[in-house]
Amino acid sequence: AGVPILSPAGAQTTQLLLEPPWTPAVLWDRVTLTCHGSGIADATTWYKDGQSWRQEGPISFVVTESGTYKCERPGTGLSPPVQVLNDGLVLQVSAQELLEGDTVTLRCRS
C-alpha cells in the first residue's frame, strides 16, 4: 500500500494514479489504475461510470473497459474521477499536477 498523498491544504485525500501517467488515458495503453489512501487496502471500493463496481477490490488493476473510474478508501473517501477512453486519436498531457509556469509536454497519439 502506498503512503497517503497530501493535498495542498494538508488534508489526506484518496488519489487514483495512472500508469502510464498520461491523461486522458486510452484503453490501448493497457492502463493500470492504483488507489492510494489511508485505511485498509483490502477495503478499497471501485466505481465505474457512477456505479459501485468492485467491493473490497484490489488496490490496482489493468483497465479492460473504457469508462470513468473512481475509488474509495474508508479513511480518505472518494477519489477524483479518471476517464479511460477507447478513442483512436488522443491529445495527452502529463497526469501529474501542473502549476502555472510549468513546461507542459503534449502528446498527439493514434
Detailed description of the structure:
The chain has one domain: Immunoglobulin-like (Sandwich), CATH 2.60.40. The chain is globular, with a radius of gyration of 14 Å. The protein has strands at residues 5-6, 12-13, 15-19, 22-23, 25-26, 32-36, 44-48, 51-57, 60-62, 67-73, 77-78, 82-85, 90-94, 106-109. It has no helices and 14 strands. Strand 1 (5-6) and strand 2 form a beta hairpin. With 110 residues, the protein is an all-beta fold. Mean pLDDT is 87; it is low at 1-7. The chain starts with a strand and ends with a strand.
Determine Rg (CA atoms, Å).
14 Å
- Measured between the Cα atoms of the first and last residue, the distance is 34 Å
Low-confidence stretches: 1-7
Strand-residue proportion = over 45%
Record keyword descriptors for this entry:
110 residues; mainly beta; Immunoglobulin-like; 6-stranded mixed sheet; disulfide bond; Ig-like_fold; signal
Secondary structure elements and pairings:
Elements: E1 5-6, E2 12-13, E3 15-19, E4 22-23, E5 25-26, E6 32-36, E7 44-48, E8 51-57, E9 60-62, E10 67-73, E11 77-78, E12 82-85, E13 90-94, E14 106-109
Parallel strand pairs: 5-12
Antiparallel strand pairs: 1-2, 3-6, 4-13, 6-9, 7-8, 7-10, 10-11, 10-12, 13-14
